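Recall that a protein's primary structure is simply its ordered list of amino acids. Everything else, from secondary elements to tertiary packing, is in principle encoded there. The following example makes that idea concrete.
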Amino acid sequence: MKLWETITGSDLTKEYQAFETRAEVLPADYRAAWEEIKGHLFPYGDFSGRNLMPILDSALELLEETASDGQSIHEVLGGDTKGFCTALAGGEGARSHRDRWREQLNRNVARKLAQLGG
């Protein structure tokens, strides 16, 4: 990976476009599941989203393989797309960026209040 690509994120754009190209050939119900998976995984991304690329690749690969095997999307995800994504992102209780920001904000407010109080 070149430094400029890393700085600008153009490598991520290319990789994401490649994911979308791969997803276009999936059956309609699988494409709908892919959209849901992306929506549920994005909150677990870091600032650049770079940490999600291997997770998205694995999820898409699973969809491609199971679609080619003729399985239904319900057999693959079990009707719980959100739970599936939580497991992919690190299991139950995996912290999203909102959780991390909320904790940081709470720490900062508590510190400021402590400074004001004495």
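DSSP finds seven helices and no strands in the chain. Residues 3-117 form a domain with the c-terminal domain of poly(a) binding protein fold (CATH 1.10.1900.10).
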